[in-house]
Amino acid sequence: MVQKSNSLKHLALQKFKKNFWGVFSFCFIVLVGLVAIFAYVISPDNSRYANQMHLTIHSKPPGFKVSMLVMPSQLNVKQSGFNKLFFGDINTATEIPISEFTIKENMLAYTEYASDGLEGQQKMIDLSDFKDYNTTDLVKERTFYFGTDKYGRDMLSRVMVGTRISFFIGFVAVFISLVIGVFMGSVAGYFGGKIDALVMWIINVTWSIPTLLLVIAITLALGKGFWQVFIAVGLTMWVEVARVVRGQIISVKEMQYVTAARALGFGDFRIITKHILPNIMAPVIVISAANFAAAILIESGLSFLGIGAQPPMASWGAMIKDHYNYIILGKPYLALIPGFCIMGIVMAFMLVGNALRDAFDVKS
């Protein structure tokens, strides 16, 4: 029995590998996951939440270049490498966009950058405070590959850091939905009777409430914040998992291997976890991929409404909210870039879900 199960898994894996778009989407998801984990390592702005503002260069187009005066931080806050990797650098340098600079003796004179043909202020700094740094360390050419937002922050860095919220909310929401959904569906499908009626009543009541409205209500009850959104989205997605698990268990609980397990005196818990669930997880995996994409869309909608991730945290939905009015002001890229990111990751999960459905389809 175990050998046949392994053979079916092997066949499903081979079918999945033959699906080009499924494999391509899976590789894209892995790449996005790596970006989410190492966002502060690879992003140009490694400050916490990529929140370095340069108001003089706000709303610049992709590929914009400017000379940047980088003055090392005078703070000496102790920060571990782990904390810096996952939460950004606290001791960030002060960056000032400049148009030109000159060095005389021990003084550096510079002109602040000003757009629209205006002339920036002229200022000077004493280089003796930065004697351990060369001029090339203090003045650097900076390229903003995705441009800057309305606060002058690097859009590329914000998109990379924002990947964390959109990506990890899928994992947390799917995990919560699987824990609750598999438990409720297993209990209802296996025991039936009044227990099944009670669970189905809870499922139908939850199902009848609009998802976004239910998420908003849970979010307001738990408070606005990062983890509150994760929990709220997860608590609204378990009903689909529960219905699928319940239906699958009803269809297999009278099969011979389940009857044999009962005859051997195995308990209900062991029969469900060791014999039934491993044989019905294929459709659950497929629906989990779809729920992953749905969780990203729900979080983006909540952030757009202002009740998701709160500033200054970077979120794709919040980035669209901040810049959607720029679409009619001739700078649509400020809203389109995070919009394309949402579309890309959601499409990737939907394609992976379709590929998994075809791979687990024993009739094809």
UniProtKB/TrEMBL annotation:
Classify the source by domain of life. Bacteria
Q: What region holds the ABC transmembrane type-1 domain?
A: 163-353
Task: Cite the source lineage.
Answer: Bacteria, Pseudomonadati, Bacteroidota, Flavobacteriia, Flavobacteriales
Q: Is Transport one of the keywords?
A: yes
- Residues crossing the lipid bilayer are 20-42, 165-191, 198-220, 226-245, 280-298, 333-356
Annotated CDD domains:
TM_PBP2
Keyword Transport assigned to the entry: answer is yes
Q: Which UniProt keywords apply?
A: Cell membrane, Membrane, Transmembrane, Transmembrane helix, Transport
Report the membrane topology from the UniProt record: Multi-pass membrane protein
Looking up InterPro entries in the UniProt record yields:
BP-dependent_transpt_permease, MetI-like, MetI-like_sf, OppC_N
User: What is its subcellular localisation?
Assistant: Cell membrane
The entry assigns this protein to a family as follows: Belongs to the binding-protein-dependent transport system permease family.
The molecule here is called ABC transmembrane type-1 domain-containing protein
